Amino acid sequence: MRLYNTLTLKKEEFIPIKPGHVGMYVCGPTVYSYIHIGNARPVIIFDCLRRFFEYLGQKVTFVQNFTDIDDKIINAAQAQGVLWSELTERFIEEYRYDTARLGVREADFHPRATENIPEIIAIIERLIENGLAYSAGGDVYYRTEKFPKYGQLSHQAQEDLLAGARINPGEQKENPADFALWKAAKPGEPFWESPWGQGRPGWHIECSAMSTKLLGETFDIHGGGQDLAFPHHENEAAQSEGATGKRFVNYWLHNGFITVDKEKMGKSLGNFFTVRDAAEKFGYKTLRMFIVSSAYRSPLDYSENALTSAENALKRIQTAYDNAAFLAENGGDTPMDTAFAAAISGYEQKFREALEDDFNTANAVAVWFDAIREGNARLADAETSRADAKALLALYGTMNSVLGIIYDLPEDAPGGLSDDEVNRLLEERAQARAEKNFAKSDELRDYLKDNGIVIEDTKQGAKWSRA
Questions:
Q1: Exposure class string for 413-429: b at 16+ Cβ within 10 A, else e
Q2: Cα–Cα nearest to 190, from 97, 113, 90, 298
Q3: pLDDT at residue 387 in the model
Q4: Contacts of 132 (CB under 8 A, 6+ apart)
Q5: Which residues are within 8 A (CB) of 327 and not within 5 positions of it... i.e. 6 or more apart?
Q6: Structural domain total, the chain
Q7: Which residues pair with 30 in a beta bridge?
Q8: How far are the Cα atoms of 3, 59, 159, 301 from residue 360, in angstroms, in the given order?
Q9: Closest CA to 417 of 448, 454, 462
Q10: Are strands 219-225 and 21-26 parallel, antiparallel or unpaired?
Q11: Is the pLDDT at 414 greater than 60, yes or no?
């Protein structure tokens, strides 16, 4: 198997550190709002990669974190008038709700930043001892100039990285390119005790602590979106290698952006579509089909036409699967056709080869459709045997075990809302109705319904109960 390594800018043969075992860490969400389609791409791609390693007979330890303390979380909680911890718990549950319906398996470990404060502090202390970090006014910063390999992942010279760096008001950096490992607490912010006073970790150090704790100081694969290569992953590598003196990750994998009209999708740009909203129109399975139909490093443009094409492709695969399943039970008793058996074996080999070449799911999907064409022709034969159909069904099952596009949607509701949260949302809904913003009112009603809240509108106002 060959994978494109961002560190070396080339495809390399994948050789795990421990034969038969793959350690993989993928950056998870910062949990302050619903995930959008761009967030979903790495979640689905690395879920498929994990499945493929298992198909190859590898044991996989898969780690995906939750960033549950961050400036964005604090700001969102303050804006909504809720505790930061309530906000993160809510959106961790919302994340689990969406990803379960996208057919994504739970990671082996879902560590949270706030559960790893001692480990974070320990790494920072090692970096200070090594002369790679310094405290200033309760903050702790990483000395980028003291780490010779800084820029190794983004492939930029230090002077070029310095060109875009700046020191914000209140920061006491030695160098504009230095980044925060620990942030002193501001009034009203959550904090933890540390050798440098009350504060909280920086974003980058959280992932260094969680990944190395669970996978070791050097592990096989670190994945994430292309936008994380710099500064997040660059800083992770600098921190981890600066603390241990060892190579942090052997293979860095980054998926391409999802764009809207050729522009990167993102919350900050205001051009994003949440998974929840997109699934309302097209369905979760269609979203997964949309993402696996493209090579992971290529940009993927979001549009209604693209989603409609993915929906049609999914229907075609599901129909072929159902037809094979029916004839596997109801076909004839003739022996299996030897030429057809050889063809099925060839399709599985081609499917595997597509994925072994830098995990090209687009080519793998194309192989699946080639198999469907030949399979449909075979199943149309009046003499089709159960053996033929069972072999075809097994092939489809093998392909699906990796791409995961045929599955039963869970029927359970998302994590329950507290009474206070329900009352707050009902107040928002009442305000929207008063302002004749019926679209927002309907959206809030539907969201509450999805969370098991039954609303009865009366002359005295809205009454609610749990379903």
A1: ebeebeeebbeebbeeb
A2: 113
A3: 92
A4: 142, 143, 146, 147, 242, 243
A5: 379, 384, 386, 388, 389
A6: 3
A7: 67
A8: 10, 21, 36, 17
A9: 448
A10: parallel
A11: no
Convert the pLDDT of each residue in 334-370 to its tens digit. Answer: 888 899 999 999 999 999 999 999 999 999 999 999 9
Spatial CB neighbours of 308, under 8 Å, sequence gap ≥ 6: 282
Q: Does residue 395 belong to any structural domain of this protein?
A: yes
pLDDT winner (highest mean) among 147-156, 264-273, 404-413, 428-437: 147-156
pLDDT of residue 162: 67
| Six token digits for residue 21 | 């075992």
Contact 24, 62 (CB under 8 A): yes
Residue 374 in tokens: 């030949």
**Cα–Cα distance measured from residue 101 to residue 411, given in angstroms and rounded to the nearest whole number:** 9
Length of the chain: 467
Round to whole Å and give the CA distance between 91 and 29: 9
Q: Which of 155, 178, 157 is nearest to 166 (CA)?
A: 178
Q: Which domain holds residue 215?
A: 2-132+148-156+203-255
Q: Assess whether 61 and 98 both reside in one domain.
A: yes
CB 117 within 8 A of CB 201: yes
Q: Residue 66: pLDDT band by 50, 70, 90 thresholds? A: very high
Question: Mind listing the pLDDT tens digit for each residue in 254-278?
Answer: 999 998 877 766 666 667 789 999 9
Average pLDDT (210-226) is 97
| Main-chain dihedrals φ then ψ at residue 319, nearest 5 degrees | -65, -45
User: Tokens standing for 329?
Assistant: 């039970």
Residue 415 has a pLDDT of 42
426 within domain boundaries = yes
